[in-house]
Design goal:
The chain has 225 residues and is an alpha/beta fold. The chain has 7 helices and 7 strands, in the order βαβααβααββαβαβ. Helix content is 53%, strand content 17%.
């Protein structure tokens, strides 16, 4: 999103109506002929300064927007952004009959990692695990950390079958990875949005329930609702 170009007009018009027409046409400032060099330079300097201030303001706004949607530890999306984009995707699939699936992931025995190696190590593990999830998913998928050791992946245009396959792929990659010489596994719950789901919350509850089923099945496994 580039800022508009600042325009300085040089005009011989002296009546107010013509001056107004310049501003209505998009001119930011103007100088009447004959041009006084010092005045021209001063007005150019002001336009440059205003343009710089607008650019800084835009960058600050973008920074605040990134903070609002990002998990500060892992750099993934956060719960707030997930809820917002999920509702939009659900509205879209209802119009276009596209499938939407969700994977809920809970790191196995993460409390033991924190207790044995400290929270700094735990945070490092979460960051690296989140990076792995992001690496193994598509750009159009939404990978988010929603709290503690719980992550979700919202899979656009993806059936339950393909979501299960993707979850199993990620599970194996996680199991085989080396995170600071620690073995890390997770329990995965998978669900596909269905006609009986009133909203994203209903889909999440089914996927989350499947995660508990994966834990009951011995952890380090994938389950569906």
């Amino acid at each position: 999103n580039s800022l508009p170009v600042s325009i300085l007009a040089i005009s011989s018009y002296e009546d107010n109506a013509r001056t107004l027409s310049l501003f209505q046409a998009g001119v930011n400032d103007y100088v009447r002929k004959p041009v006084i060099d010092q005045e021209l330079l001063a007005r150019v300097d002001n336009l440059v300064l205003n343009h710089r201030l607008l650019k800084e303001l835009e960058e600050q706004q973008q920074h605040l927007e990134r903070i609002a949607m990002t998990d500060q530890l892992t750099g993934l999306y956060n719960r707030h952004y997930l809820m917002d984009v999920a509702q939009k995707k659900i509205a879209s699939i209802k119009r276009h009959s596209v499938k939407l699936s969700l994977i809920v992931i809970d790191i196995d025995f993460f409390k033991k990692i924190n207790d044995a190696h400290g929270h700094t190590m735990g945070d490092l593990i979460l960051t690296q695990v989140g990076g792995l999830f992001k690496e193994l998913t598509r750009d159009e998928d939404v990978v988010a950390r929603i709290g503690g050791e719980e992550f979700v992946i919202l899979l656009d245009a993806c059936s339950l079958k393909h979501a299960f396959t993707k979850a199993e792929e990620i599970r194996k990659a996680l199991e085989e990875a080396n995170f600071e010489n620690l073995n890390v596994t997770a329990s995965f719950g998978v669900a596909q949005y269905g006609e009986d789901d009133k909203d994203f919350g209903a889909l999440f509850m089914r996927a989350d329930k499947a995660t508990y089923l994966a834990k009951d099945n011995g952890r380090n496994t994938v389950a569906t609702d």
